[in-house]
Amino acid sequence: MKTLVTGATGTVGAHVMHTLTERGAKPRGLVRDHAKGVSVHGPDADLAVGEYSDHDSLRAALDGIGQAFLTCGNHPSQVDWETTFVDAAAAAGVQRIVKLSALGAQAGSPVAFFDAHARIEQHLRAAGIATVQLRPSFKMSTLLAGAHGVRQADSFFAPAARLRVDRSGGRHLRRRGRRVVRHSRPADPLRTAAG
Ligand SMILES: NC(=O)c1ccc[n+]([C@@H]2O[C@H](COP(=O)([O-])OP(=O)(O)OC[C@H]3O[C@@H](n4cnc5c(N)ncnc54)[C@H](OP(=O)(O)O)[C@@H]3O)[C@@H](O)[C@H]2O)c1
């Protein structure tokens, strides 16, 4: 079954493309900028140029696709963009969508991207396509955004938790923290990155 990886030039999508390729699959990546796609995935990668607001480009990218990984950076149009993709995928006969959501996703949340993810999840469930909704917590790579503060204060202030995948639900993979991760582990590479 051919897989379309959206956000293939993004942090998570690029890893998904690489991992699928390493495993012998031949995924297609949806990219906005072909040159950027080639710089990330090489000249032999199967890349479709398109974007969520361009229906024709989505139709072309979805041709022959059986399953898709759906992700987008947080943006005021994220709900419109991702639900447009879901509708295009349903029309194209896609059988499964794995959506990158976020822990805390809840419709009506005052946190805009929690609300956005919940509304996209609802739309996806209503579309009748088999779905896996990933709800990660804080990505450790995001800690690098704190490099400046570490450099200034020689300390890092943020809660974090060890992640565990709960596979029991089938349709939802919710990651829950069980034990606190001491910042001594991520602090060293952060200190190196911060100089
Ligand atoms: N950071 C965290 O700790 C965290 C935790 C939990 C969940 N999340 C969720 O993870 C998602 C972000 O993933 P990420 O880190 O991989 O994001 P990212 O690095 O910003 O990548 C976003 C990808 O989406 C593409 N994109 C943006 N707008 C598009 C459009 N209109 N049409 C087509 N493609 C478009 C971007 O293309 P370009 O390369 O062309 O810009 C890029 O490839 C968010 O939804 C966020 O809520 C993040």
Can you walk me through this structure?
The longest helix has 15 residues, at 112-126. Helix 1 links the parallel strand 1 and strand 2 (28-31). The protein is of the alpha/beta class and 195 residues long. Strands 3-2-1-4-5-6-8-7 form an eight-stranded mixed sheet, with helices on both faces. The chain has a domain at 3-136: NAD(P)-binding Rossmann-like Domain (Rossmann fold, 3-Layer(aba) Sandwich), CATH 3.40.50. Helices cover 38% and strands 18% of the residues. The model is unreliable at 162-170 (pLDDT under 50). It has seven helices and eight strands; from the N terminus they run βαβαβαβαβαβαββα. NADP nicotinamide-adenine-dinucleotide phosphate binds at residues 7, 9-13, 32-33, 36, 51-53, 71-74, 81, 100, 102, 113, 136, 138-139, 142.
Draw up the topology in text.
Elements: E1 3-5, H1 11-22, E2 28-31, H2 34-41, E3 46-49, H3 55-61, E4 67-70, H4 78-91, E5 96-100, H5 112-126, E6 130-135, H6 147-153, E7 163-166, E8 172-177, H7 184-194
The protein binds NADP nicotinamide-adenine-dinucleotide phosphate.
The site of NADP nicotinamide-adenine-dinucleotide phosphate has 24 residues, from helix 1.
Short summary:
It contains 7 helices and 8 strands, in the order βαβαβαβαβαβαββα. With 195 residues, it is of the alpha/beta class. An 8-stranded mixed beta sheet has the order 3-2-1-4-5-6-8-7, with helices on both faces.
